[in-house]
Amino acid sequence: MITEQQALDDLIVAAAQENNDAAVIKLLSEIKTCDVKLLKDAAANFDFLFEAWDDTVAKFDDKAAVCLYLAENSVLDTQNFRTALHNAVRKFLPPYISSPGIAKTVGARDQSVPVHDVAARIRKLRKLKTNAFVYQIESQSWGRVVNVDKVVATIAVNTFATGAQLSIPIANALAGCLFFEPSVEMTSIIATEKRNLKPAAFYHQKLEKYSLGDLSETKIKDLLFRMFVPQILSQEEFAKWWASADAPAATAPRQRAFQDARSILELSTLLAPLDPAAVKVDMAAAQKLSKLFLHLKPVMSPKDLEMLAECIAMLADSADAETLKVMYQPLRGKVAFWPREINESIPLKQLEIWGRLSVRHFTGFLKAASLVYDRLEIAKLATILPLRCISIMFESLTVDDISDAVFAANSLNSDILLAIWKNRAKFPHELTSFLTMANISAALSVEGLPKEWAAAQRELKKSLFDKADFQKFVLANAGSNIPSVITAIQRMRNMAPGECQSLLVKLSRHSEALKEQIESGEGRKLLAAQDAEAGKKPKEGPPMTSIRSYKGLVAELDNIVKVQVPENNKAIEHARGFGDFRENAEYDAAKERRRFLQRRRSELEMLIATVQPIDFRAIRIDPEKVSFGTMVTAESPDGKTTDYCIVGAWDGDPDRNLVSYKTKFGETLLGAKVGETVKLPDGETITIKKISPLPDALAKELSPEE
């Protein structure tokens, strides 16, 4: 006995044969009555079919119709199918709109556009005509199509509100506009006021009647919501109006229990008219919804993700914590906005939903997330998310939570830096000390931020340039390490030299040390090597050290960030499990360790930002004067001679007579001439007998080759 699947496969093979129009017509009729799952199981055979049909799809209505139907139902998405779908566009479009430019806007060959969206665009374009009414979803405005330019693929729209004419790319119009047949009834709908508001059934019927495309009930409701709220109705009034007895029979599915929803769209539709405070979920309902969440597609559209986030928020108060955990847990790692692991490598695009949620939904959404993640993970999320999210999240986090997360971060974005600044009055110095020019420079240098994060970056830059109290605070955190401020400014990307100079001038008004640094020329020479004039005592500026010591500083910082900080965070989390912090010695020890690591990390970051690594193999010396990078042969009063090597700030080793130029001993020797007697810090004297380059072996040791 031949199964349905075998019969369908045989029909596909027959339709693939040349000049078999009857099989094509029969296939078109058959697929419209088949279960979609059956069609998807035949995807491989359909792919073979479209490869065989090639560009003939553009010549035959029935072949083009097969493509369109399969696209509408997302049966397959292969290269052969997309090519066939692109050819079908040419067949479907009317002559006045058909052109290569228009066909490209449909996106049949664009893998980022789902095939069902391609089909929807084709249907819209088939009905698009001059004088059609158009509703722009983003701007929530109505207008009329006055021209379709198929050469440049745009439509010209006269807006009703202002009379202005807009030119909209057709790709944008297909994705963000709704089109309607012009009529007197549509004109009255557009001009609706509260005094002439009709029952919901009227609008449902008329919008569906005049729509130049598929208009689902959800889209009709969304359109009317945008038109009427809050201009005519409040949200509560709209919900009652839409759910009234006069609503169309099509709203009947809403009577299904929300826990029986089969999709996120249905769940959203069923929850929308309900009062969140009245929504209750028992364990059986939680398990049903858990299964729905478990079987979500790994990749969801932004609109579906937003609907899901709002549903999560509406259910956040519906049950006790254990029941909600059962319901929400499958979503961790399943949806983009709740990743499996919280770390700084998460692409910000994944977290956009957090920034888009309304305040009304955000509190519930955060409560739900707090059941899926532990406190430290929520705090880590706060260091990544947009500022508007952080402000709300800080209310549910302790200072210790925030400190742990900030300390664990490898870098801080503009949003968290601004949040620390805005809460500086209640935060300890260990948190506010992160407001350094180095951190600010790194945050302002990040490019390509999504718009949810870009606003904080602009605000941080404005604060740095225009707010005196912010400038003073950053300078105070720098302390005596003024070179670190200048170096950080010099390293800012996205800022023109003129902006850097302007910022330095503004900051110098609050710091005499910075002003002196700039006026002495050091502000422009911070990254230069030692003075070209050998033998001259180095000026105050960036400390100099060997390449070996510089690498040692970098390695120590790397070890703190990647090894010691994570270990310390685990120790704190472990200690927290013992309960009462007031008598928790292990917790106190872990916190003290964190404070030490934070201080050392800050020191190293400051040093690395300003230190100048020197290649001792390339130094040229003056044999008549003691200078940085020389070996000094000195004679004591008893006739004993000793060789001292003048090395970098972190290269000193008394056992080997390696003298850091930053020590009092080193500073005493610098600039001394051959034959000169020098009084040492301990009161003894030595006579300079000879000045020579560092031994080759030592120079190579201090400046190893890569």
What can you see in these coordinates?
The chain is α+β, with helices and mostly antiparallel strands and 706 residues long. It has a 5-stranded antiparallel sheet with strand order 4-3-2-1-5. A 5-stranded mixed sheet has the order 10-9-8-12-11. Strand 8 and strand 9 form a beta hairpin. The termini are far apart. The model is unreliable at 245-254 and 522-539 (pLDDT under 50).
- Helical fraction equals 40-55%
Backbone CA Rg: 36 Å
- Low-confidence parts: 245-254, 522-539
The quaternary organization reads as single chain
Sheet having the most strands = 5 strands, antiparallel
What is the tally of helical segments? Answer: 35
Principal-axis shape equals elongated
User: Into which percentage range does the β-strand content fall?
Assistant: 5-15%
Terminal residue distance: 75 Å
Strand order of the largest sheet: 4-3-2-1-5
Number of strands: 12
Based on helices, strands and strand pairing, what is the structural class? alpha+beta
What is the average of the pLDDT values?
85
Keywords:
706 residues; alpha+beta; five-stranded antiparallel sheet; 12 strands
Short description:
The chain is built from 35 helices and 12 strands. It is of the alpha+beta class.
Indicate the topology:
Blueprint: H1 4-15, H2 21-31, H3 36-41, H4 43-53, H5 61-72, H6 79-92, H7 100-106, H8 115-127, E1 133-136, E2 141-149, E3 154-159, E4 165-169, H9 170-176, E5 177-180, H10 184-190, H11 200-210, H12 217-228, H13 235-242, H14 264-271, H15 283-294, H16 302-314, H17 321-328, H18 352-356, H19 359-372, H20 375-382, H21 387-394, H22 399-408, H23 414-422, H24 429-432, H25 437-444, H26 451-466, H27 468-478, H28 482-490, H29 497-508, H30 512-519, H31 522-525, E6 544-546, H32 547-576, H33 585-610, E7 612-614, E8 630-635, E9 641-647, E10 658-660, H34 664-669, E11 677-679, E12 685-693, H35 696-702
Parallel strand pairs: 6-7, 9-10
Antiparallel strand pairs: 1-2, 1-5, 2-3, 3-4, 8-9, 8-12, 11-12
Helix pairs in contact: 1-2, 1-4, 2-5, 4-6, 5-6, 5-8, 6-8, 11-12, 14-16, 15-17, 16-19, 17-19, 20-22, 23-26, 25-28, 28-33, 29-30, 32-33
